[in-house]
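LAB NOTEBOOK - FOLDING QUEUE
OPERATOR: T.R.
BATCH SIZE: 2
PURPOSE: Compare the predicted structure-token outputs for two unrelated chains run back to back under identical settings.
PRIORITY: normal
REVIEWER: second-year student, initials M.K.

ITEM 1
FIELD SEQUENCE / FIELD STRUCTURE:
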Amino acid sequence: MKTLREALLKDNITSLGIWLTFISAIVFLLCGTLENRNEGGDFSVFFLNYAITIVYSLVVLITAFKRYKWGLSKSKIDYTIFMLILWLISAFALNRVMNVFDDSVTWLSILLVLSCTSLALTPFLEYLLPAFEHFICFFVSISIMLFGYFALSLIPLYIISAPAALGLGISLHSYVPLLLTIFTIILALKSVKRHKGLIFSLAGGLLFCLVAIAYFNYSWYSINSKITKFANRNTLAEGKLPNWVVISQNIPAGKVSERILKSDLVYKTFNTDGNWLWGNFMNRRFDEKQQHDPLVVLATLFQGKISLDETERIKILESMYDSRHQAQERLWSGDELETRNIITNVRIFPEYRMAYTEKILNIRNKDSRKWGGNQEAIYTFHLPEGSVVSSLSLWIAGKEEKAYLTTKSKADSAYKQIVGVEHEQRDPSVIHWQEGNKVSVRVFPCTPTEDRKFKLGITSPLRKTGSQLVYENIYFDGPTANDATETLQLNFSMIPGHLNLPDGCEEMSKGVYQANRDYEPDWQLRFIAPKLSPETFSFDGKSYQIYEAVITESTFRPAAIYLDLNKQWTKDEFDALWEAIKTKTVYVFNDKLVQLREDNKDIEFEQLSKLNFSLFPIYKITRPAQSLLISKGTPASPNLSDLKGSEFANRLSSYLETPKEVALYNIGDELSPYIKTLKELRVFKYQTGDLKNLLNALSASKYQSFREDSATVVIDASGVSIRQSRNEKAGKAPDHLLRLFAYNRIMKKVAERYFRDDFIQPEIIAEAEKANIVSPVSSLIVLETQKDYERFGIEESKNSLKNASMKSSGAVPEPHEWVLILLTSLIVLYFIKRPSLKKLTA
């Protein structure tokens, strides 16, 4: 029996087919991952793949004609296999230029590779082990279903492709899946005829496909039915929450649900009105790469689309999958942008338990077209709890231009007018506050001819855990940073003890460390918390000083306990807590307040522990001072602002108008976005810890909370308070004390009007201007020229700290102090020059 090597050496055309298939696949894969992919480049790659295909096709046809004249069907089957695989590779290369199918999902790409590989191995089955033979036939069977799907999808193209083939023959690619389907069926039948046992492998492959399709369709139908059920139930009950909130709470958060919600946003669906699959343009309201998933197409064919409109689906995606960055309004596309380089410059003040971080990002537009290539970069930065943005800069014509602070509405209006209406090449950038310790940054235009650069400054409290302080890196969503490099610099106002630096850091000088590396979004550093500094910062007639936060421990026997249950709770946690509180009045919220008893507690827990998130209606707590709310956070939930206009929000707004503090104990460190915002608005007397600490506190009837007043704000993550006084004595503390103080006080002031249109009050704006910080009422914006600022009525703040910088420390001189400094300088100068003046007059 001859070996495989001998067979290939004897048949040059088969060997050529293998080599050309390998080369064509490598060209297709490598060129598809090049940085500067563009229409011209894709077309060149296609013609290279097409040329390889034509060359081999001509070799096969000429050889067959020489051997069999017009009996071409008698040609060796091996040649046809490799010829059709080459045509398939060429077809997918053409698809990059003339988009018929969107980018394949991962499982489809893998299955296409396995199908072509199994098809290419079929001529050599006699040289393989029997087990491999069955394995290959299993995938050949799957290939029939896969190629058949593509063949059916392309039926609308068949009529126009035939006459168009008279040119360069490019339209012949439309028939490749059909030919592959027919040929693979013939190949499968021949294999069974040769070895009848292979019929079981072929049947297994077909059954696998049918089961997968059936399961996905059943899941689609089941989730779609639940969506309809929960929406109808909420409507009939006249629910206080919008339908989309109730749906996102209750449907399972899996891959099928995500694909249902992203249908026609990310995943193409079967289009009965147009050209089936390929006729419609996709929606651009959701910024995620459009993908082709045959299971989604077939599910919409057999089960139909969901009955939710686009806005509702996006809201559910935000609430279930934390897709807020993808759902942001986009005035221009940004799909060709990437983050090329990041400079992270951190100034840490251990003795003040705070840090100032500057992030300088370089953005590159990979599109090599010289026309129509303008794009908009949008970033979402995730900040440590209690952080505030205190500076923004944009490089224009090679020069750093610093931002002006103005109201959020005015900044948004100016940016949209320039970018969205006038489409001007005016170089604006804007940053807005978002709920959940996030901010969004926009930069326009990002052109193919020039990299853009902007700088963001963030003032952050350091998190205190035990005796240690923790600095957490500020990471972002936005143009991909997969290939980005980063320069990290850390400098300390004082060297702390037991400093645990990130990997790769080298000491450049005393207290200054630097690392040059690939970008890493997730890192932190730790060190021992030193004694707090007694220094103050003074500005505008007031001084600011940091102290250890005063923790008050009081006797607390709650008259009622409210459990905020969701899927993060375990049954063991619930049972352990119930044993400690079952003698008290305990409520849960399940469409209405339900008092727990021994006979209903397990049923209520079973229902509520399925919720993806919870939105406990704190306005239902009738005696806040005598009540305890126990919660456990979820990674995602609706933001407070998402609920605006609902009955839930209206009642919550009325509740917030009169200051009340509910005792909230959160089990664990994670807070849902909903609870996180209410906490920032000072709605709770907040305490966090594990279940054991909670049980101990309940047993001792004790509750700990931080004390705050009109002149003091507490930053509980750091365990410190910042106190404002009228002492004008200059100090050496950083100006970030004022910035953090102002941010926390603004959050407290906006609480009572948070859902109202008039929550932007002049005194709140004035406080934001003084500290130059981004908040719910204020934004930072960079415009190209002074005339642009004047056109939109944006003025530079007068009595302000201005943009923060690495040199922001110590007291800022008042106007009258500047006069004294000038007079003192003149007097000193006079005495220095006095001898020279005497000589001149002598």
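ITEM 2
FIELD SEQUENCE / FIELD STRUCTURE:
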Amino acid sequence: MDKVINCLVAALTLLLSARGEVFKGDCTFEKPLAACGYSQGRDDDLDWEQVNTREKSPSDPWMPSGSTFMMVNTSGRFAGQKALLLTPQLKENDTHCVIFHYYLGGRDNSHPGHLNVYIKENNSPMGMPVWNVSGPASRSWGQVELAISTYWPNFYQIVFEAVTSGQRGLLAIKDVVVQGHQCMNTPHFLTIKGVEVNAGQTASFHCTVNGRKRDNFRLWLQGMGGREAPMKATKPWNNRRFIGTFDVENTTKGDSGRYRCIVHSDKGVGVSNYGELTIKQPPVPIAPPQLTAVGATYLWIQLNANSINGDGPIIDREVEYRTVSGTMYDLQPVDKTTHKIGHLDPDTEYEISVLLTRPLEGGTGAPGPPLKARTKCAEPMHGPRRLEVVDIQSKQVTVRWEPLGYNVTRCHSYNLTVQYRYRVAGKEETREEVCYDTQSRDPQHTIHNLSPFTNLSVKLVLRNPEGVKESTELEVQTDEDVPGAVPLESIQGSAYEEKIILKWREPAQTYGIITQYEISYKAVSSFDPELDLSNQSGKVVKLGNETTHMFTGLYPGSTYSFTLRASTAKGYGPPVITQFTTKISAPSMPAYDQETSLNQTDSTVTVLLKPAQSRGAPVSVYQVVVEEERPRRARGTAEILRCYPVPIHFQNATLLNSQYYFTAQFPAAGIHSPQPFTVGDNKTYNGYWNAPLLPQKSYSIYYQAVSTANGETKIDCVRVATKAAILVTQLTTPYIRIVPAPGDNQLTGAATHKPDAVEPEKQTDHTVKIAGVIAGILLFVIIFLGVVLLMKKRRTYHSYTYYLKLAKKRKETLSSTRQEMTVMVNSMDKSYTEQGTNCDEALSFMDTHNHTLNTRSECALTLNGRSECALTLNGRSECALTLNGRSECALTLNGRSECALTLNGRGKTAPHRHTSLF
């Protein structure tokens, strides 16, 4: 709403002006602002308020009473908000004085804001304030005189500006009066003139003050753009006037504008009219001069100065020239458009510029763009001399030579380069660098970025536009440096369970002679979390000609970090880091003192399962394997225990014709302490059926631990029990034979020996009967011999002879029945190769009962009139069994145990346990 009112007031003021009504500028603010020609500012934040406290009591305790005035209430306002009040345009023709009163109201010692007064001349920008007040609240009216020296045809306008401070209070003015005479306490100015100077010069303004100089007068020069200048000096003009001088120094184009003089007194301020400051730019040619001819001692140029930057007119021209690399300088006046510069030095580069001058002091502009020209030169006298190497490092070489004078170069401008050659990978490389240090007393040049330990050929080349000369060539070798890194791709590691063999190549950049390699290693991780890796670290130093090393004593299944670096005489090069992992080892199976089960039945065997010790990787699973023991085709071959990596279920063993099957599998956490396990309990363990064992078969029970890590699987196994077959059969006489399982010693690990098993043919019922008969015969013989030895221990030699004859006699009666045994023996030829051990078992039985044999004892036994067995123990004990004249079994115990079985004329031998009788 306030804005609308302001616009209406401004429009009314304009209308009145158009109707010819002129406002003097006086206003008591008892009537509306429009009646006085005053108006509110448009580009401000607040409006002035017209208040009459004669008719209405003040609303605030600090508001003046009994008067009419214009005010700005600062209470509740943000700091920095502005309110403008403009007087009408004043067109005075003579000396006059403007007086107004101001008021700062508020709490004690508060600062409600700033009150500024501007003088706008001829609708120009407000510029800078000529008077302002911001003191603490006074609660009394103050008076200000404005001695304004702007006259017709110029006009001016007074602008009152209130700026809030954010504190409570008010700013007010009243009783603006324009008096037709000079101010009583504030001096006036005479009209000041404009000033014109060249850029960079000092502009001096002279302001004449109408009045005597007083000590309380303060004068300065105020520019509309904000630049101010203090008063430089004053001088009296007469007894009623004095002149103040103001200097605007170091002027530039930006200082151009309007300036006025300001004088402050105790009662007000005097303001002069504006004087124009004009800054002229000295002329500068846009283009450089043009070269038209060149000689050894002269240069012809054309000024080319028609186009300029700056201001004219041009009143003078000069040519400035100087040497580019020297102190020679000269300035020559020119009166023509072309000019010859003579008496120059040969082969010297010059900079030539043109200078132009305009009127007034400082009117000579800067030199124009230079023309660089060089006089001609001659061929050098000779190349650089006394070339020597003064410093050699691994990557740089410094050379020095005799200073080059003008008498050698015959040019002040020449080119000196260093050329060097070296070989890289069998190929010669040539490089060239410019030598810039040519003017010193001891000129030298350093060649950088060379390869260490490299042979160089170095020479200097002197050139000028007329010729080339070279120095002698030097041979030099750069110093050694630390070598480069060992190629990571060259490092090869052969990993084993407890060792790693490391191989590498020397660095691609040896930069000298490799003296040694340093290898640091440290275990960083292991598949087995229980391993303590704190002591798995170390450092190895190898000679420079060694590029392989074997690290031993490592832990299986562990990752080792290897840091490898090479060294020359200068030290070690950068390290390269790689990692290799040792292979895991098979778990270490616990020791079993004997292959004795905890309990056995016809179809089960109870064994004790103990946890294995991991080696490089934790145990993954435990497995129980049942292997059926079958007769072998060959005896005496070394036995190698093969663990069982391929799991075969019991159901698939027959289909695959496999001798073994997995009967149980346990996770590693399932066996953390020794625990019994019954093989054949007809249960399922992790998918494997623990099938009952067959009584008529012999079995070996194996217990194995499996570790799997990093794509490797390692197995260790141990035989924990055996089960003998229980064979029941009947021929002529019923009997029972217990067949022990083959193998006498505990077998563990993949490297332990086990009899090589030849795949047996399938047995028939008839073969089983034959085996039963033989087993019964041998058992009877063993029992009988034991009884005889016990009863006849002290018999004489004759008694021994009697039994021997009796055995021979019975042997003769068997000849008629031998033919009948042939068929049975032939059927045993392929199925039973283990019969040779029965004699050993008989002797073992005898040894168990601690029988003592006479030196010449003899025993013979005939069964069913067909079999004969004789035992002779005379220090060379013998036992023989003859079947149909084709089958024999003989046992000799004389420190060299032997057992032989002949079937159908084909002898079969098999290893057996040596048993001592004594």
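REVIEWER COMMENT (ITEM 2): The chain is about 10% helix and 40% strand.
FOLLOW-UP: none requested
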